[in-house]
Write a structure and sequence with these properties.
The protein is α+β, with helices and mostly antiparallel strands and 405 residues long. The chain is built from five helices and 20 strands.
Length: 405
């Protein structure tokens, strides 16, 4: 007898390790029992917690800060005064604009009076010209004067509108010396001090960062590209933070953003998660370990997921005839071997069950596979939940037939 080669010896060890249930009495079928346990199909990710709403409050005008009415972490209401810029220069500009408006208004009154007087003189000149008392050239002069004074009145009216707009702009600038909160929340950051001069000449400087109430937070989770296909809007999300390692928080996933984040060869996509925290323990900047719950079931009857696709070699249902295969669209029993006929019919039967909301698997009874119809629920990469079917805990389910390899 030849000595076994090392390769054959290792192969035997591998098969024995992979198939612990394949014993000497039943070497053909590999089975796994129906068990009771959990199913967890999750997508992991890491994200950063931030307030659901966050606004950077800036200054739209240039000036010196003379008052600050809110500090770090202070609660604020929408419209509450946060700081004040020195209003004196803007009050002076408003006074100048108002004076210019009064001047323009007076100019309108004077121009209107001159035009009205010119209109009356034109009427008198026309009456005298009709009697032959004055030459017609005088009428023409009065008509020209009336047109000129009318244009001057239009110009004065335009100057009033311009002065009005300057007054409105001065009032707006004066109102902007009061920095107010646009939302209800708290002061997350304050970036100014009393006496500091802010300049809005080139860009709007940020004075405060106001965050909304932390009863609702948002997590921007980065999901790896190989997992992003399993994440969609509306999935339940579970996450933990290092500050409370023994406590789980829950949220709902929002849309997947289509802007990839690239870090070398690693690509990820941000997904926003909305979460509620009534106790406001989750703080901005905390790192969250996120699990998108794609499918989950606890303490359920389950079988190995391979059992839904395996078929015993040459297995045929009892009473199977050629008429059964001929009734399958596209198949002709006369042109097929017996093995192919059985395989085709079993495949067709599986498709029928799938469309009916059922699946098939095989239970090993007295060493022979027996087909069972089941309904399945949650599944992960290893197990599938059995929600209905003639199965018992401990039933041996076929997961591999060595004759198919």
């Amino acid at each position: 007898m030849k000595q076994a080669t090392p390769l054959l010896f290792l192969t035997c060890l591998f098969l024995a390790a992979c198939d612990p249930r394949a014993d000497a009495e039943n070497p053909r079928f590999v089975t796994d029992p129906v068990s009771f346990g959990d199913i967890r199909d999750i997508v992991p990710a890491i994200g950063e917690i931030r307030p659901a709403g966050q606004v950077e409050v800036g200054a739209e005008i240039t000036g010196r800060i003379i008052e600050i009415h809110a500090d770090f972490d202070a609660s604020v209401e929408a419209g509450q005064l946060l700081a004040r810029i020195d209003p004196a220069p803007y009050e002076a500009r408003l006074a100048q604009a108002q004076a210019s408006l009064r001047t323009a208004t007076a100019s309108v009154a004077a121009a209107r009076a001159e035009r009205d007087n010119a209109s009356r003189e034109l009427v008198r000149a026309r009456e005298l010209a009709s009697r032959g008392t004055v030459p017609t050239s005088l009428v023409e002069e009065r008509e020209f004067a009336l047109v000129t004074l009318g244009a001057r009145l239009d110009q004065a009216d335009a100057e009033v509108e311009l002065a009005n707009s300057r007054v409105e702009q001065a009032e707006i600038d004066l109102s902007r010396t009061e920095i107010r909160s646009p939302i209800e929340g708290f002061i997350q950051d304050r970036r100014i001090e009393v006496g500091q001069t802010v300049s809005a000449a080139q860009s709007t400087p940020t004075l405060f960062v106001v965050a909304s109430n932390l009863s609702n937070v948002v997590i921007e989770a980065l999901v790896a590209e190989n997992d992003i296909g399993r994440v969609q809007q509306g999935l339940e999300v579970r996450f933990t933070v290092e500050a409370y390692p023994d406590e789980e928080f829950y949220g709902i996933s929002g849309p997947v953003r289509r802007a990839p984040r690239e870090n070398g060869r690693f690509v990820s996509y941000p997904v926003l998660i909305e979460a509620s925290d009534p106790d406001q323990r989750l703080l901005p900047g905390m790192t969250a370990s996120v699990e998108f719950i794609h499918d989950e079931a606890r303490a359920v009857m389950r079988v190995r997921i391979e059992s839904l696709t395996v078929r015993p070699a040459d297995w045929c249902p009892d009473g199977f005839t050629d008429d059964d295969i001929n009734n399958v669209p596209g198949f002709n029993a006369d042109r097929m071997t017996e093995s192919n006929r059985c395989a085709a019919f079993v495949g067709f039967l599986g498709a029928q069950l799938y469309h009916a909301g059922q699946r098939r698997l095989f239970v090993l009874e007295d060493g022979q596979p027996v087909l069972r119809r089941v309904r399945v629920g949650a599944q992960d990469d290893r197990y599938v939940e059995i929600i209905d079917g003639d199965l018992q805990i401990g039933d041996e389910i076929l997961i591999r037939d060595r004759e198919l390899f």
